[in-house]
Fold each of these.
Amino acid sequence: MNTLLSVFVFLVPIFLLLTKRISSSKKLPPGSLGIPIIGQSLSLLQNMRGYKNIGPISKMCLFGKPTVFLYGQAANKFAFASDSSILANSQTESVKTILDHKRVRDALMSFLKPESLKQYVGKMDLEVRLHIDEYWQCKKEVTVLPLMKTLTFNIICTLLFGIERGARRDKLVDLFQEMIAGMWSIPINLPFTRYTRSIHSSKSVRNMLKDLIGEKGKELQEMGSNPHQDLITCMLSSRNPNDVEEISEEEIVDNSMLVMTAGHDTSAVVLTFLIRLLAKILLIALRYWVAEQEEIAKGKHRGESLIWEDITKMKYTWRVAMETMRMFPPIFGGFSQAVKDIENDGYIIPKLWQIFWVTSMTQMDDGIFREPQKFDPARFENPSSIPPYCYIPFGGGPRICPGSEFAKIETLVTIHYLVTQFTWKLSSDDCFSRDPMPASTKGLPIQIAPKKQMF
């Protein structure tokens, strides 16, 4: 207790210095900075309570920094359409320390462009089938959320990093889970905190990736590997020894960790809610979803893999997924930093202040989506009818997520095999909260049976 008090006393003057520079003539957004350093961080981490009751712009303190909270269509556009002279990409101190990322967007876009993604459907198909054989077949009950996290991590290891199944992958997943657990924690570096354990795990993950980069680089040099066999090889292939700004090993590690983090929990959460919906909501709409997948399965020979053309037929299934992401968004928002003093909605956002934008709040706005609590995939029959920057689960404008199509294929391939091979029902009611991803109290346990077998 004395140690915590000492840390608090030490940090308070630093916080006051950060906020003292603001002159009284500036009109700051309404709200309170709360307790120095801690501010509203704890209430944010406790299931995202209270944010529906504040205005579209307000000030607060999050994770040790003075912060302006924004939501609404204009806020979404501001967050995603502003250039680097106004907003800088930012994260909480815990995320920055743990990831410390720099984007090498060109390499990511090359690896994740549609022409390249067509080549990955078969690999993804195989990974999903192996997962089902190992964790679903001959089972009477499974717990969905941890299984979906296992699956998405295995897909990342196979397609993005080329890490084969075995001891290395098993060790990596354990370290990764501990790293993720502390990424949104209050940045107090003491031995017993989640934040400190996360930092140690992050360092171990980085070292494992550096070893992998060395191996991939040697393969590329000696054997001329296919540049698109995995993301690390793609980034190594884009290096030019005559270029003084070539991609460094550290940048490859940073981007690998960024992709690993961004692509893991998000897809797992979407898949979990899709499975939950099919068990809980008995709608004709969901029958259309199942029928679409069964029609695709009828056109395949036994054991034949899905191909790109099959994915393009899953239009209704993707509308179901989009509506699921609208109602249960995996990502609620993110952070930027003001490069200079910014005027927004009549208020000043001071230079260097953190900006916390919550994109998902527009998705439950009844002024944008009629009856937002109602599950209705038909909303997405004509996506152009939705006002710009009101539904952006993958970001928007120049800051759209380069992995959005990868996540789409991953979701569609997985749900195809689950829907066509199994029926299921909930084992018990399951509550979800945010930590900061939607987290299930029980992991969503379900009873399963092979298709055509009745409960």
Note: Residues 249-280 form the longest helix (32 residues).
Amino acid sequence: MPLQLPHLIIATARPSETTRWADEFRKAYPDWKVDEFVAGQPSTGATYAVVWQPDTALFKQEPTLRATFNLGAGVDAVAGRIPAEMPLYRLEDAGMAEQMAEYALYGVLRAVGRFQPYEEQAREGKWKAYRPIDRRQWPVAVLGLGAIGSKIAKVIASLGYPVRGWSRRLHEADFPCYAGEEGLKACVSASRILVNALPLTPQTEGLINRDLLSNLQPGGFLINVARGGHLVDADVLDALKSGHLSGALLDAFTQEPLPADHPYWGIPSVMVTPHISGITVRELALEQIGSRIELLQQGKPAAGRVDHSQGY
């Protein structure tokens, strides 16, 4: 008996985005049935959900779901909404790693003042050359060594910056890696630039706080490409005020959009961006999710499955 074709239901935080993703899946997989989630409607009988910040009613309304696919690498926005027994898959990269590596590299260049002096003097019509920076004076710590963090670390290291990496489990790489609580302290204390690429879990929430930042070398710089929940904003602001942090490049916040009266907006050394460091590339996401569904249809394991107990 031939396998029944996949039946998808798409659910995102915005109806217009749900429709757009549904249309993309219909084009990419014309033989599949693709529905859009509408709360309060009868069950569609879907077998796979493709979601981003879905309504929790989805999982009660669609009891036939076999697995859920998240339209992003971070699953903190869905992990608490999905039944614990439901297999959950996340995107692994899907075009985001290169974007986030570029973003982090831009932050490093801002931190070391590679181009800022020239931007300022160009506005005044001045012609003056500065000595090259000494990269050895700007060691970088990358927290999180998944597909995205590893890419960030490799790109920065390839340009001659001393790089160290930290993750929950010890990794092997071409740069020093650390793990555990003591390893975190050692990694950060040997660094002047801190790049956060961690998943948000109960263990990492509020990790970038007064204690951690105090280990960073004086005049340090913070780059956050992960989640706002990693940062204790009051502690980051205190470090900026005291000068222990010389600046920051921040892309994610506990409340988004960032409120107009938030102190980050008024600090010249802080650059705020609207959560754009790594945007899902639709074509790659469609291919990745589609290929994984095809594997599951054949009874084979698929990559990217989330460990609910770990949160990633």
Note: The radius of gyration is 22 Å.
